[in-house]
Amino acid sequence: MEIEQVAELARTVAALTQRHQDFFNGLVADERAKSAQAETIARLWAMSDVAVVNAAATVHGNGINPEALKALAILREAGFVREVQVPAFLEGIVYNKGDRVMVRGRIYECLSDCVTGFYRCEGDPTVEVPRLTTPNWQAVGA
């Protein structure tokens, strides 16, 4: 944003009624809160698992929790893992080997490069009911 635009914005805000200034201030506070939450999530994803467990264990305490490694081991033994957001499959997008997509609640991994479709129709539709297959995709999780 150019300095002239900032100055114009300041003049506009200064001319607002008190009610509109309060509303504007609320909007600014909401945007700052969203930004802070996004930064917090990014920071947590950048941390090691032990550091995340420490952060979670010390939310209501002070300092590092010496039991964090034990807590992490219990969580891993119980099957807890970080959930990675998997995008839904989109027609027309080019997928490559190793890409993962979500289709009907299941996660699939692409087995080839330059894949643009998910299902393939097999069989002769004039002779039999065609089967839909996924030759370029392998189910890897729920």
TrEMBL record:
Protein's recorded name? Uncharacterized protein
The scientific name of the source species is: Methylobacterium tarhaniae
